[in-house]
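To assess whether the prediction recovers the assembly geometry, we first specified each molecular entity separately, as shown.
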Amino acid sequence: MSSLAASAPLDIQEPAEGQRPSLSSSEPNLRKPPGHQGRFFTVPGQIVSLIVLITPLLVALYMSFTDWSPTRSSLKAAAFVGLENYKELLIYDNRFLEAILRTLLLALICLSLEFVLGLSLAVLFLRNFRGKSFLFSAFLTPMMVLPVVVGYTFWMLFQSNGPINQILTLIGLGAIEWFKSPALAFSAVVITEVWHWTPLFFLILLSGLNNVPENPIRAAVILGASPRRLFWKVVFPMLRPVITVAFVIRAMEIIKIFDEVFLLTRGGPGSSTESISLYIYKLAFNDFQLAYGAAAAFIVLTASLIMVHFLLMPVREQLLDKGR
Amino acid sequence: MIELIDLTKEYPGATVTAVDKINLTIHEGETIALLGPSGCGKTSTLNMIVGLEKPTSGDIKVKGRSIIDVPIEKRGIGLVFQDYAVFTSMTVEGNLSFGLEMKNAPKDKIKQTVQKTAALLGLSDKLKLKASKLSGSELQRVAIGRTLAIEPSILLLDEPLSNLEAEARLAMRQELRRLRQELGLTIIYVTHDQVEALSLADRIAIMNFGRLIEVEKTSVIVENPADVLVAQFLGSPPMNVLKGYFHKIDGVLYFRQSGVDFRLSGARLPNEVEEGSKFFYFLGLKPEDLSLGPQGSDSHKSLIEAPISGLERRGYDSVLSFNVKGIELKCEVDSAQNPKLGSKKALFINPENIVIFNRSGRRMDKRLLIS
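The predicted structure of the complete assembly is given in tokenized form:
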């Protein structure tokens, strides 16, 4: 005590005094750079990423207003045609409009099936049973397989003399020429897509179900709700944001569907299973109509942005409102 | 009337019994508070009564009939949760009508009941509002209303006020008191907040470690707790409890705890209470019964002399702490006395006010006599 008191005025005082203000001011000093000058250090990076991300988009946007084809001239020399490509696509190009409608139909059918299957599986997984964790991993596996591999595998499965037809023959239904009729080819695409992506719905819905608070459910049980009404009146509304997010993610993906269709049917027979991506691909790489393809891509981009916006609208508030 | 008979709940794998042979009878129209620290088995007891959990053994009878095998929705028991558990995706109206809808009640009856319940709880102008837009105390009202709408014979409240802010809590407490009077419901109220229990309940049942320690009328339990555990738990601050034995020095009675002698000047032991280190007792000294005297004045009559080691001002009253060789005593005095931290004071108590508990912690009927 005494030595401290004695030495304090002599040699501790200065560092002590020097230390105290620095202790209180050093924190803001350390924190200031990231707050103020710090953000300027990110400018070069931002510029680079802007160039890398935005430039191709802008070039493509410009391209969509021209009649450029790489086999004829350079983009610079291509004629500016204004909205001609867009007009052509939206008014006269039936194949494009059909591809859009077909893709939407595919999305509607696949998402409905995936949702129902995913939800049923998720509800089953709320109970405990033997082998639950094994089955959980097994059910998630399809999601991890490369789309190309899925497309190739199902192409083999659906062959005239493939395993699926063999089983159908065995049970007496007879073989089916999957890829020869438009409806059957479309079904093959739906089956492949549902097999591939139901696990995502299952995973998202299961985690949603597991996060539903317990007490409202208990309260409903005490008030006499039957299991069915409990699910539809209490659990389902609480799941709605999760369901919507699952739908948005899957809708975004399925609108871009390419690999499976390409490997299964190449859009055939005719153009009866042609998805929008496949059509744009053919425009660009079969017909070299790059400008026209770019215009098609921008229409799809705009349409999907609007669609997602409307899909999210009913749950936007619920998703953003963290308070409850 | 609801009877809990040897009610027991053991969870698989748990080392302690959550609820240990509870026996309790709750009368028609009575409000009883289950009071105890967290994890003492209050909520398990409630869950068993309502039917969310099955007892390991024992029985629950309502009006003389066992309800153990009665399905949850047919028990006629309502439960209000601590976190309200209101259906936030529905409107207030949807919440209030939920129970009746599930019972497929006729539409006009549902409408009538919703109107009545909303009026009772002051929610009439909020019926069309989404429940997610409500404040904490409004949610609480909806939760209570939703339960009352099915007209339960017994209402269980699980810490209904602990998620509310202080002001809303006070208002809601009054509201509950009013509801109880208007509806004449039998209420079982679970809380760890003794102020709530004291202000709402007719009787208080104190639980600890899954056991029921004492059930007593609210007015009696604070003044005269039957168990030393209750004495240490109830009151703000709770009763000071000394553990030790009586002995005499030069004819003056002392109570000794771990080497510290507390003088009981002018007192003598009643017949049933023995003197000597073989006879172990607990003494309960209420903080408000202890008084201060300046050091030196009549100090030969004081319980003990000690410096003030802690001081907590609570408006008109102050709570003083005295630390006598590790034994802490609390004393409630008028703030006007302006006590100073560290100043040495003599503590006085009228020996007749001291509560004596026997070695197993039960209150003895006898008190010290004045010779």
